[in-house]
Design a protein that fits this description.
- The structure holds two protein chains of two kinds.
- Helix content of chain A is 25%, strand content 33%.
- Chain A is of the alpha/beta class.
- Chain A has a single domain (4-150), classed as Dihydrofolate Reductase, subunit A, CATH 3.40.430.
- An eight-stranded mixed β-sheet of chain A has the order 5-4-3-6-1-7-11-10.
- Chain A starts with a strand and ends with a strand.
- By secondary structure, chain B is of the alpha/beta class.
- Chain B has one domain (2-170): Dihydrofolate Reductase, subunit A (3-Layer(aba) Sandwich), CATH 3.40.430.
- Helix content of chain B is 19%, strand content 32%.
- Chain B is built from four helices and twelve strands, in the order E-E-H-E-H-E-E-H-E-H-E-E-E-E-E-E.
- In chain B, the strands form two sheets. In chain B, strands 5-4-3-6-1-7-12-11 form an eight-stranded mixed β-sheet.
- In chain B, strand 11 and strand 12 form a beta hairpin.
- The two termini of chain B are 13 Å apart.
- The relative contact order of chain B is 0.26.
- At the A-B interface, strand 7, strand 8, strand 10 and strand 11 of A face strand 7, strand 8, strand 10, strand 11 and strand 12 of B.
């Protein structure tokens, strides 16, 4: 079965963006950028909440055409308000995201990148549909912003798969979710 | 004077369940991950009232004869026999200057609110956070709101066989 992987970068205090969506605090560098092709190659599908989708487009208007279809990946946006067919290359899931993801996992294909936001991730964690969590912890405290794990409400046990440290101070951790 | 934090947290950033419960931590605190070595470098602890009350419920007093300063705006319950406990109140900078004047060189700041107040005041120089491989979903958060970004310098990250990951950060002023 295909895995659903919640993989993002976050501040040490677990924010994925400032309150306005800004990502100006994120350190990248060649060492991390060089790993992206391998990461991207493991996915062919993106699953994303509507707010995060809008913010991601706003952050990179110059690439918005490309991002609209997230680098050629099949893109599903979870939204109650977006109209079907309103964005080229994007499919809208308007209700029962859990059921949809359950059937998506049974289709053949590469893994599914759960790109946030936290609210979508929390609901899929509660439904035990997330298989892996990857956090790339940035060396900063933001003090406020959009949370990585908002109100999950249930306990989720994890198993550490990988721990990697980068020269710029980013610590990347990968966990398997014990569902 | 130097102030450090040494604490365990769930991956979702909680240091205890909402009622203070620590049942999600590995039994016995997990495999050795440097606590004794860290404690050996510390002259005194600075904890909040809630942490003090939690520690009072433990079977044994965990700090030996190490001085423990409990921050509270009102008087605190009596400490067990043999414990060295003193009640203090005031803002973090007052506490730091009082303790420094008494010759204390390195304090261990513990407890959610107390850590947050000292961080906010720019008075923490070292953060040692041990991530436990679990999301507990709700509870007492390690970090709180700050009025500004706090830049950290990553010093080291250590991985333990049971899945604990300990990261050490310096806060340079």
């Amino acid at each position: 079965m295909r895995k659903v992987v919640y993989s993002l970068t976050n501040s040490l205090d677990n924010f994925i963006a400032r309150a306005d969506g800004a990502a100006d605090w994120i350190l990248m560098g060649d060492e991390i950028m060089n790993e992206f092709p391998k990461l991207y190659a493991s996915f062919d599908t993106i699953l994303i909440g509507r707010k995060t989708y809008d913010q991601t487009l706003l952050l990179s208007p110059e690439t918005s055409q490309e991002m609209a279809g997230f680098m050629g990946m099949k893109t599903y946006v979870v939204s109650r308000t977006m109209k079907k067919g309103s964005k080229p290359g994007v499919q809208i899931i308007s209700d029962n995201a859990g059921d949809f993801v359950r059937s998506l996992k049974n289709e053949s294909g590469k893994d599914i990148w759960l790109f946030g936001g936290g609210i979508l991730a929390a609901s899929l964690l509660r439904e035990r549909l997330v298989d892996e969590i990857g956090v790339a912890i940035q060396p900063i405290l933001l003090g406020s912003g959009i949370p990585l794990f908002p109100d999950i409400g249930v306990q989720v046990d994890l198993q550490l798969l990988e721990c990697k440290t980068y020269k710029n101070g980013v610590v990347s951790l990968t966990y398997r979710v014990k569902n | 004077m130097k102030a450090s934090v040494f604490i365990g947290a769930s991956l979702d950033g909680f240091i205890a369940r909402a009622d203070g419960a620590l049942d999600w931590l590995p039994p016995g605190g997990g495999e050795p991950h440097g606590y004794d070595e860290f404690m050996a470098t510390v002259d005194a602890l600075v904890i909040g009232r809630k942490t003090f009350e939690t520690v009072l419920t433990f079977d044994t007093w965990p700090y030996g004869a190490k001085p423990v300063f409990v921050l509270s705006s009102r008087p605190i319950p009596p400490a067990p026999v043999g414990a060295v406990v003193e009640w203090m109140s005031g803002d973090p900078s007052e506490i730091v200057s009082q303790l420094a004047a008494r010759g204390i060189g390195h304090i261990y700041v513990d407890g959610g609110i107390t850590i947050q107040r000292f961080l906010q005041a720019g008075l923490i120089q070292r953060l040692i956070i041990t991530r436990v491989p679990v999301l507990i979903g709700a509870g007492i958060p390690l970090f709180g709101a700050t009025h500004r970004d706090i830049a950290l310098r990553h010093v080291a990250t250590r991985q333990y066989a049971s899945g604990l990951v300990q990261s050490e950060y310096a806060i340079d002023v």
